[in-house]
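Hey L., structure's done. Input below.
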Amino acid sequence: MLFPQLDDILPARLKNAPHNPVLDAVQKNLMVALDERKRDLLRSGRRLFDFGLGDPREPTPSFLREALRAAVPESSQYPSPHGTAALRAAAAGYLDRRFGVKVDPDRQVVPATGAKEAIFHLPLAFAGDPRRSKVVMPDPAYPTYEVGTRFAGLEPVKVPLSRGNRFLAEPTSAHLGIAHLIATECEVAPDGRFSGRTAGTPNMREGKLERLHGWLAGRGLALADCESRFYSDSINDLPLLAAVRHAVAVDPDDRLREQAAARGWPVISLR
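Output:
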């Protein structure tokens, strides 16, 4: 068999290899960016406390290592894409015991190499229906949520995981017996799912003060007539701190600490 010369196949060197335009919208992996930042700081002589990936430092228990060695067969072969029935049943049993969630091990359990693999490929299972072009995801979250969504040709919609959101704050307030809660309302679409947008004024910064004025007005009250007290650790709460009668800075950030000193507000620590 005769093979043509390489120059006949590639008459000119490939200067700009084609690539998926989605790559331009994908940010650098967070862990990679942290590693680069860590390397730069170490080179500068800074002392670092590494809270990166969270890799365990403790030795793996010997019984786990022995169990892994014992499970390796004489001849290893490709596993089933569905995993073994025993593995799926064990996963379903764990979900039931740990979280009280019952699933069908044959229809609702899919073994994967890792969470990132499953998260990345999940949007592909729903792509193609023009009625469903968005993927709602938490923010912050694994970068894989957004990357998988973009490669599937779908639009990422990020829902901030703020403690000021009602769906996060409401269970805590109910547990503590708090009768009234003012929180950021997340918009719910007609199908009962979060749309990724907020409804009304977000409960943050100046909005927190606006929401409080509205809540009081609905009860025929005004903040100026109330014996009000507000605790905060963030400069973002400065508008409300400045509006109440008694403002208290709790383990404040640097900018709030400066404001507290200038305005004569007490500073306390709960650490």
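The chain has a mean pLDDT of 85. Residues 66 and 229 are 59 Å apart (CA to CA).

-- N.
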